[in-house]
Write a structure and sequence with these properties.
The protein has about 190 residues and is mainly alpha-helical. It is built from 6 helices and no strands. The protein has a domain of about 120 residues: Transferase(Phosphotransferase) domain 1 (Transferase(Phosphotransferase), domain 1). The chain is about 30% helix and about 0% strand. Helix 5 packs antiparallel against helix 6. The chain is globular.
Length: about 190
């Protein structure tokens, strides 16, 4: 029976690492002494869940050396976000998968039991304990973004009209309503 070259990526060779390469954690691929433990299992379970959700492996390559490179220090350092492959995947489930597949063992779940606990919480519609790692947002030019208004004292009737965006370089004759006390004659252009 003829095999395609890519199918050999799933096979263990004699004298090679034991296990399926695409499910191995970075420390397992590096064959670190004492590197195999609960964090390695958590990574492998995360890689399995990733593939079940997206129907593709977290890291894929045409040959073994490229796959090893991607697992160890490839760019991106994490697999592609599952929601980008299948938008229907819930964000909390994506967070669980990506936390299990962190490159650094200390950043993963401490054990498979804590990961299973988060999966149970997800299935029971409870908040998960894993925090999503978010990219910092680019600053916005919108004057409302990032503006923090002080909350009114409890029981107060603070008028909402006092919260306004910053007025910057407003053109002469702007059609927006001028604030009380504004000198309307200053806005009119001479004819």
């Amino acid at each position: 029976m003829a095999r395609r070259p890519q199918e050999d990526l799933d096979l263990t060779r004699t004298g090679d690492l034991v296990g399926t390469l695409r499910y191995m954690s970075p420390e397992q691929v590096r064959a670190e002494r004492g590197g195999v433990g609960p964090a390695t299992d958590v990574y492998s379970l995360g890689a399995t869940l990733y593939e079940l959700l997206t129907l593709r492996p977290a890291f894929d390559a045409d040959d073994r050396q490229e796959l090893v490179r991607r697992i160890l220090d490839g760019e991106p350092t994490r697999p592609k976000r599952p929601k980008r492959i299948r938008p229907s995947i819930p964000r909390d489930l994506e967070t669980i998968v990506l936390k299990a597949m962190e490159k650094e063992p200390a950043a993963r779940y401490p054990s498979a039991a804590t990961r299973a606990d988060d999966l149970r919480r997800f299935l029971d519609d409870q908040p998960i304990r894993a925090a999503a790692r978010r990219r910092p947002r680019r600053p916005s030019r919108n004057p409302w973004n990032g503006t923090t208004a002080a909350a009114p004292p409890t029981g107060s009737s603070w008028p909402s009209s006092t919260i306004r965006p910053a007025r910057r370089n407003r053109p002469v004759g702007d059609s927006t309503r001028a604030p009380p006390g504004w000198n309307a004659t200053r806005t009119a252009a001479p004819s």
